[in-house]
Design a protein that fits this description.
- The protein has 2 domains: 80 residues, Arc Repressor Mutant, subunit A, CATH 1.10.10.10; 47 residues, 3-Layer(aba) Sandwich (D-Maltodextrin-Binding Protein, domain 2), CATH 3.40.190.10.
- It has 140 residues and is of the alpha+beta class.
- 14% of the residues are buried.
- Helices cover 53% and strands 16% of the residues.
């Protein structure tokens, strides 16, 4: 096989039973699917499908491909859902400072922010002294 996309194409044919439905799901022309299936079968030196007037049904080899590819697709879907937007999630420590008289105004905002971003570990320090941001004593 040249690539994982070849397996995906064969899997879609086995899943839908026709070149047209497989092509539609992949966003390609049905002749592209046919060329790939022919190429895959030539490369593997075995038939993956029985061709008939109603479509394609997997051979024993095609059934093996279908079952294993279904497991791969499920694992890929789980992986994508785990990493989707991971870079956009906020995580890590955040040190906030303010004078103590503003604490009643700031604490509700911190609570809302904490619920929206549970991966952020917020530390709020209310003090009259000035924290040095450039020395890393605080972030905000």
């Amino acid at each position: 096989m040249k690539s994982w996309s070849d397996i995906q194409i064969a899997y879609q044919v086995a899943k839908f039973g026709t070149l047209s439905k497989a092509a539609e799901s992949l966003g390609v022309h049905h002749s592209t699917v046919l060329r790939h299936i022919d190429s895959i079968e030539e490369h593997l030196a075995c038939k993956l499908f029985h061709r008939h007037s109603r479509g394609y049904t997997p051979t024993e080899a095609g059934e093996i491909l279908f079952q294993d590819a279904a497991k791969v697709e499920e694992r890929l879907d789980r992986m994508v859902s785990k990493i989707n937007g991971l870079d956009q999630q906020l995580t890590g420590p955040l040190v906030l400072t303010s004078v103590s008289t503003l604490s009643p105004l700031i604490m509700p905002v911190i609570e809302v922010f904490s619920k929206a971003h549970p991966g952020v570990d917020i530390s709020f320090q209310a003090d009259s002294r000035i924290f040095k941001l450039e020395y890393g004593e605080a972030h905000i």
